[in-house]
C-alpha cells in the first residue's frame, strides 16, 4: 500500500498544481487559516479513498473546505488536549511540592519525580491520541457528523483491529520517511523550510490515503453515486 499511497496524488491530471497549492498553504500555516484548509483537503482525501475513488480531490469550494478543516481540527484538538492537561497538572503539582518543601533537596527530588511521571503519562496519552485521531477523522469524514469523531462504539472495533494498526504504522512510516528527507534538506539554509512544506504535504496525503483506504475496507463503504450524500449511503 505504500507505493499506492505515494503514487495517489499523481493519479490526478492536475497533481502538480495540487502539490503546489498544498505546499504554499503549508508555508503559510503560521496564518492559521491555511492549516485548516490543508486539514479540509486531507479529509476530502479520506472521503474519496474510503469509497474507492483513486483520483485525488481538487482544491475547490474553499469555504466548505475551511469549515471541514475547522471541524477536523476541533476533533484532533480535543484528543490532544487531554495529554497537555495531564502534563500541566503534574508539572504544577511538582512545582507545588518543591515550594512546599522550602527548596530542600528532598522536595526538589520529589518535584522532579512527579514532573517526570507526568511527562511520561502525557507521552503515552499523546501516542494514544495520535493512534486514535486518524480513525476519529475518518468516522467524521464518512458521516459528516462532528460527534462521530467521538463515537467510541464505532471506533473501538476499528482501533482494536490488526488491519487498522497495520495501516496506522504504514502511514507513520511514510510520514517519518518524509521527516527524514526534510531533515536532510535542512542542511541547506531555507531549502528544508521551503521544499519541506511540499514534501510534508505530499506525505500527509499519502498517509491519509492509507487511512481512508483502510477505513473503507473495514466498513465496506460503497463508492458514492454522483449527487448522493453520505446520509444516503447504506448503514454500516
TrEMBL record:
Alphabetical UniProt keywords: Membrane, Transmembrane, Transmembrane helix
TM stretches of this protein: 20-43, 73-100, 106-133, 165-185, 191-211
Signal peptide segment: none
Keyword Membrane (UniProt): yes
The UniProt record lists the keyword NAD: no
One of the Pfam families matching this protein, by short name: DUF4013
Stated name of the protein: DUF4013 domain-containing protein
Organism from which the protein derives: Haloferax profundi
Amino acid at each position: 500500500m505504500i507505493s499506492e499511497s505515494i503514487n495517489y496524488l499523481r493519479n490526478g491530471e492536475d497533481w502538480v498544481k495540487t502539490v503546489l497549492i498544498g505546499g504554499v498553504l503549508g508555508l503559510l500555516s503560521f496564518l492559521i487559516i491555511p492549516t485548516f484548509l490543508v486539514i479540509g483537503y486531507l479529509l476530502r482525501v479520506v472521503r474519496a479513498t474510503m469509497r474507492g475513488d483513486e483520483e485525488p480531490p481538487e482544491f475547490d469550494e474553499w469555504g466548505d473546505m475551511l469549515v471541514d478543516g475547522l471541524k477536523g481540527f476541533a476533533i484532533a484538538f480535543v484528543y490532544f488536549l487531554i495529554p497537555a492537561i495531564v502534563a500541566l497538572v503534574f508539572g504544577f503539582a511538582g512545582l507545588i511540592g518543591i515550594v512546599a518543601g522550602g527548596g530542600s533537596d528532598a522536595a526538589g527530588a520529589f518535584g522532579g519525580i512527579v514532573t517526570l511521571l507526568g511527562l511520561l503519562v502525557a507521552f503515552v496519552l499523546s501516542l494514544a491520541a495520535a493512534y486514535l485521531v486518524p480513525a476519529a477523522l475518518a468516522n467524521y469524514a464518512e458521516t459528516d457528523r462532528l460527534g462521530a469523531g467521538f463515537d467510541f462504539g464505532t471506533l473501538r472495533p476499528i482501533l482494536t483491529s490488526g488491519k487498522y494498526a497495520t495501516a496506522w504504522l504504514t502511514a507513520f512510516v511514510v510520514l517519518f520517511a518524509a521527516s527524514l528527507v526534510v531533515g536532510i534538506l535542512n542542511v541547506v539554509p531555507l531549502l528544508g523550510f521551503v521544499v519541506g512544506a511540499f514534501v510534508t504535504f505530499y506525505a500527509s496525503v499519502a498517509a491519509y490515503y492509507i487511512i481512508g483506504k483502510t477505513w473503507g475496507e473495514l466498513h465496506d463503504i460503497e463508492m458514492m453515486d454522483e449527487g448522493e450524500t453520505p446520509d444516503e449511503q447504506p448503514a454500516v
